[in-house]
Amino acid sequence: MSTAVKYLFTEEMVGERVGPDIFEEGVRSVPASDRYWCGVETLPLDRLKDIQAERLQFLLKFAYDRSPFYRELWDRKRVRPSDVKSLDDLHKLPVVTKYDFERDQAAHPPFGSAPTSPPSTHLKYWQTTGTSARPRLWTDTRQDWENGLLLYTRSLYGHGVRPGWRGFFAFGFPPFLGFWLCFGASESMGCQVVPKGGLPTKTWIEILRNLAGSAPSFLVSTPTYAIRQMEAAKEMGIDPASLGINLLTLAGEPGACVPATAQMLTKGWNAEVHDILGVTETSGPILFTCQEQIKRTPISDHVNIDYFVVELLNPDTLEPVPKGEPGVSCVTALGRFGMPGIRFLVGDYMEMVEEPCPCGRTLPLAKGGAIGRADDVVFVKGIKLHPSLVETAVRSTPGLGVEYKLQKKSDQVVILVEAEPNVPEKEYARLAQTLQQDLKTKTTLTLPVEIHPPGTFPRAEMKSARVIKG
């Protein structure tokens, strides 16, 4: 074990720190250079995969020895950690879904049998948003939290955020992991943090107007709420581009990598627009954009493979897809020990490539980011329809507003969209026909389209439900 790594927390604060040290991480609390927070980001790809393998071997044995959930699951499937001799063997372990954790917590309330130590000794408590399953409870040890802070810090640094910037956090601070980790990482890297909390949106816009222009500033929110803040500013007679936000870091849903949405937000805020993706069950950013990737089409995310094994699976069989082909993501978190996430089916549609990035990072790329969640895909006449594809069409059509829904009615899907405020109602039919034709070109499907007046659909700070039942 190397002693070269200098952690954020002292040994006395952490208690038991487990897993291998990776000496290339160096001093975690300061940037390694003016371009990279951590030296690991530019290591040769073979070394990154060695780190993956070393951390994976430790995690599997640790989880088997200490987590009844994984021990019983693997025993039932007649597989042992020793059967996984390399990354290529990981598929021998069963895939775990949110429903498995939901059932386990119902059988062993409140936290289930996944924890490797008493949850009451862990630092952080979370619950999932429960958009498509019952909310699950989750915890982070102090070491887990520290690992997540490192990942978020280097992701923000990759965006271009620097110590001394001011971060505006546009969310209500609920018990969802959400942007809490970003908030903590911003503090630890030396930024001033400004929380919105429960303030009304227009009161929040006044805070932005008073503070954002006096220091380099970044805004943290979901893509949907970034759009809502633009709307609110315009309703107040304020040009969002004049507020002084230099950079947006967006998470919680696709958007920053959806070209039409990224372009709209970039122009509207006069700011760089960046993407981060993570989930509660695995913690920490799995993907993040750099300053070079946001200049490209499609916009791609770097994959933090030193802390995650991201497998792409066939959504129907859950078997690994051939290298280079798209699939749904299955993630093993290599730095999460209190409640491990091993072969957890995140379910984002992705395509991963190993190719150089002009930024100098050797971390692989998720080409085009995460297209969408498998749970959000709807089938129309046997054809998959991603909400992000509808989003691109809606936000590329002049005269249409930014809010939309996919209303599922038996075997049909109706596209519900708002018009822009200055569009007369007599134009709605023409707009519906224009959007319908664009969607037919993109999908081969003829989908009913309904245009509604501005303000019809509610705006959300957190994830927006795009698919609704009729």
CATH topology of the domain at 142-372: Rossmann fold
- Low-confidence parts: none
- Output the number of helix runs: 11
CATH architecture of the domain at 142-372: 3-Layer(aba) Sandwich
The CATH H-level superfamily of the domain at 142-372 is: ANL, N-terminal domain
- The shape, in one word, is globular
CATH class type of the domain at 142-372: Alpha Beta
Summarize the structure in words:
This protein is of the alpha/beta class and 470 residues long. Among the domains are: 142-372, 3-Layer(aba) Sandwich (Rossmann fold), CATH 3.40.50; 378-469, ANL, C-terminal domain (GMP Synthetase, Chain A, domain 3), CATH 3.30.300.30. Helix content is 28%, strand content 20%. The protein is built from eleven helices and 21 strands. The protein has helices at 11-14, 45-66, 68-76, 98-107, 142-159, 180-189, 201-211, 223-235, 259-269, 387-394, 428-443; strands spanning 124-127, 137-140, 166-169, 192-195, 217-221, 247-250, 272-277, 287-288, 301-303, 308-313, 327-333, 344-350, 352-353, 365-366, 372-373, 378-380, 383-385, 400-409, 412-419, 449-452, 467-469. Strands 4-3-5-6-7-8-9-14-13 form a nine-stranded mixed beta sheet. Strands 10-11-12-15 form a four-stranded antiparallel beta sheet, with no helix packed on it. A four-stranded mixed beta sheet has the order 20-19-18-21. Helix 2 (45-66) crosses helix 3, helix 8 (223-235) packs parallel to helix 9 and helix 10 (387-394) crosses helix 11 (428-443). The longest helix has 22 residues, at 45-66. The protein is globular, with a radius of gyration of 22 Å.
